User: What shape does this take?
Amino acid sequence: MIVVTGATGNVGRYVVDELVEAGAKVCALTRDPEAARMPAGVRVARLGDLPLDGVTAVFLNPAVLWGSGPEEFLRQAAWHGVRRIVTLSSAAVAEAGSGNPIGDHHRALEVAIEATGVEWTHLRPGAFASNAGQWAGQIRAGDVVRGPYAEAQLAPIHEADIAAVAARALLTDDLVGRAPVLSGPQSITQAEQVRIIGEAIGRPLRYEELSREAAREAMTGGHVSAEIADSLLTMFAASVGRPAEISPETERITGRPGRTFAQWAADHAADFS
Assistant: This one.
C-alpha cells in the first residue's frame, strides 16, 4: 500500500489519481475523511488513525506535520517497515542556511527523513501555479489584482506535473536518492499570470503593484508570519527583470513537456468565477 498525505490538497489529489490509474493500492490521508471524495477502492483515513502495517511507501506533504514535528511519524514509519518516502520539498532548499526560512524548514525535514535509513526522493518544485489561487477573492470581486512586484518572473509548475513526478518516484526506483528541482516550462511575470487568468475566464484583468510595505502588511494580516513574508518579498524583488530558470527535470522524468500556466488557468477557471 502507498500512503498519500495531504490527499485532498493541490498536489496530493493528483498523486492519488496517478497511483490509482497505475493500479496501485492507495490510502489517502486527510483531516476530514467524511468529506473526501476519492476514487473507488481508495482507503481514506486521518493521520492519527493510520495503521502503517503493510505500507511500503509514503508521499509526504510537510504541511500535515507542521506544528507537531516529523519525528514521531518518521519513527513509526521506519519501525513499521515503510521502505520509501517521497517528500514534497521546495526549490528553496538551495538557499537553506542563508536566512531563508522556507528552505531551512524543508531541508530540516529532508535531513530527518534521510536519517531514518529509508529510501528517499525529495521533490523540489519552485513556484506552484496554484499559488495564483490567492488572487481568487480579488478576481471574483473585480478586475484588478493588487500585490507586490508585478514584474517578478516565475516559472510556475502545474500541480499535476508535480504529482506525475511523485508517482514515478513512488512506483519505480528511477528517482531513489535524488532531489530533482521542478519548474514549469516558461518564465512569466505575476502581471502576465493575472492576464492569462483573465483570458481563461473571459474577462480582462490587470495587476496593480503594491509597495513592499503595503504588501507585507497584507500578507502578515492574512496569517503569514513576518519571517515568511519578508523571505517571499525578497525573492520576488530579486526576480524582477530576471527570467526564472527552467528545469529540464519535469519533462525528462515524465517524458512530456510540462503544462503551461495557461493550461493551469483553464483547468482552474471555475475557481476564479
Notes: The radius of gyration is 19 Å. The CA atoms of residues 168 and 174 lie 7 Å apart.
